[in-house]
Amino acid sequence: MMSKNGLLHRRAVVAELLRERGDLLVVAGLGGPNWDVTAAGDHPNNFPLWGAMGSAAMIGLGLALAQPERRILVITGDGEMLMALGALATIAVQKPANLTICVLDNERFGETGMQETHTAHGVDLAGIAKAAGFATSLTVRKPDEVTRLRDLAHSGTGPIFAQVKIDAEALPFVLPPAEGGILKNRFRASVLGEEAFYN
Amino acid sequence: MNAAARLTETRPQDWPQAVFGILSELGVRQVAIVPDAGHSRLIRLCEDDPNKRVVTLTTEEEGVALLAGAWLGGEKGVLLIQSSGVGNCINMLSLMQTCQLPLLMLVTMRGDWGEFNPWQVPMGQGTEPALQAMGVIVRRVDEAHLVASTVLGAANLAFNTSRAVAVLIGQSVLGAKNFKELAKPR
User: Fold this and answer.
1) Which CATH superfamily is domain A10-194 in?
2) What interface predicted TM-score (ipTM) does this complex get?
């Protein structure tokens, strides 16, 4: 699960987080996290984003409030999360017990030429989430901590935040459907049943 | 009595109560807000309703994403913001257009009729074209007795056809603020 420079491999992290995923609902932020989640297995209970940067955590909150009996896992990147730091305050105030936000932090804007993000210069996302009021906020660097995060995402008391330090590797894209209508309809049919099409 | 019938029973100045009744009847659960004085009565009614969850945002685009998630999970919502906040929503509205998600936005206007503060004018005048540029259907209402029926029509359009629809509530309905009355005399 570790690279030569001692950092976690992102696809191994996501594969572990989604191991025996059950009825877990997943929102994937644009770019690398979308391809990682899809590499672990395209699934109707995934809502992978191809745009709307900064939306992933708040989509997770709306979903968590609407589906309080289900577990919601947002997997996004450090650049995407940095664009929505206010969302951490909003989520902390709402205290959704069923929501986990996992940031795959390669300290880079990976899709645009691997430019450094703020986390490369010491900005501590887990610290920001903790200060905002997240019940649990972790920095994850080791495989056993990934397994612990997987268990928290499935059964811990949220809101849970995790900043997972990963290797800045460039991997082949693994693409889910791109059309928004398909992603929306398959997700709603899976979560709500086909009666969702008749309202 | 249903919402449509109740519209004719309500005094014009009681439009927040009428709109609250419509939202309740439609089953709106998530109420995303960046407060505005013009929305204050409606916000209070929503806060007092155990069937609604008021989510205070740090910036308006959070609400667009929140309500996308709400709909994916089977809940309806409404976004209550001021016209200046429409500018913050622009890129996030691509969610609605790309994924054919419904969105009901109730926007109280500034920078328009009777405005005193020049800093409100650019976004106030840009509100309608900015929304339309992002594929949002815009209905404007400038008379109090027409607010509730306009909201009902917009909500049905949004939720029945999976579109983003904004109702712009004009300052002639809300009353324009006069800063001179609030300021210390020179």
Assistant:
1) Thiamin diphosphate (ThDP)-binding fold, Pyr/PP domains (3.40.50.970)
2) 0.97
